[in-house]
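Reopening this one. Same input as before:
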Amino acid sequence: MSPRIVTLAGDGIGPEIMGAARELMGAVGDFELEEHLVGGASIDEHGSALTDEVLDACREADAVLLAAVGGPKWDSTDPAAPRPEEGLLGLRKGLGLFANLRPVRPSPALLDASPLRRERIEGTDLLVVRELTGGIYFGDSSRGADDASDTCSYTRGEVERIARVAFRSARRKVTSVDKANILETSRLWRETVDGLAGDYAVELEHMLVDNAAMQLLVRPADFDVILTENMFGDILSDEAAMLSGSIGMLPSASLGQPGTPGLFEPVHGSAPDIAGSGRANPLAMFGSVALMLRHGLGLEDTAAQIESALDDVLEKGLRTPDLGGDATTEEATKAVLANL
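Same output, byte for byte:
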C-alpha cells in the first residue's frame, strides 16, 4: 500500500513550491497524495486557519508535507481575527509534534553565497532541536487597552522529552541554550537537562541565548546539536539558516511520539512579494521531502538520493534569485529531476 501523504500548500509561494514537490515525489516513488487547505487559504474558504476535518486527515496520514502560510492579506491587530499561523500552531499541537529538527549544512557550492566569510562557515554541520509545544507561544495571554501579557511556561516532562531527542541526535556535543541568568523557566530547563546528561556519551554545554546568537556567527562549525525552547529556537534557527546563504535552502521536520505522523516543511515563509512570479526557490521544499522520506517514512536511500541531487545541481551552478542567479522555480525543479 502506498504511503499516504497530506499536502498543505498554504499561501504565497506555497502552491508553487508544493507543485514542484509533487513532481519530485512522483519521480522517486509511489505515494498517495491528498491535498487540503491551511493558513490564509483556509481562512478565506472556511473562516479558520485549520479546520477539524483537515486536522483529522493529517492524523490519519503517514506524513504531512506543508509549504508555507501567512501574508499581509491576513495581518490584523484585532485579537479575535483568525491568523494563518494559527494553522501551523494547531497542527503542531493537534498532532503532538514536540520536536522540531532543523539541519544546517551549507552546500560546498554555496559557501561563498553566505554573508559570512567562507573560512568562518566551512565545516558547519549542525542541528537545531527546538521544543515546539510549550513556552511563550502556548502560554496564557491577555490584552487590555493599554497593557498585554504572554506567559512562558514549561514542565519538567516537556523539557525531558525534547532533551532526549537532542542527546540521541548528537554525534559529539549538545549545546543547551537558555536564559538561566534571568528566567525561572530557563533554570528549570538547565536543571532538567543536567539531570539527563549522564545517560548519554556526549558532551553537554550550556550557553545563554544572547551569547549563542553571537557564537553562531563567530564559530558555527563548533556546534553539533543546539537544544533550546520554543521562542529561542524559532529565532536561532532562522539565524542559522543564513549560514547557508539563503533561508530558502533549509528544510525542517517536526516529530512527535513514534507511530504518529510528522510534519515536514521548509524553514522560509510564504514570500508574498514574489508569489506567482516563478522565482521561488524550491530547494528547501525538496529538502523537506527528503526529511519526510527519512524521518517520516523510513526511506533513507531515497532521501539520500534527493539530497545528492540537490548538491549536484548547486555544484553545476544552478542559482535561483535568492542565491544571486536567475533560475526559475520550474528550471530548478527540472534540474533536480535530471540529476536524480
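So the earlier flakiness isn't reproducible anymore. For the record, The chain has twelve helices and twelve strands.
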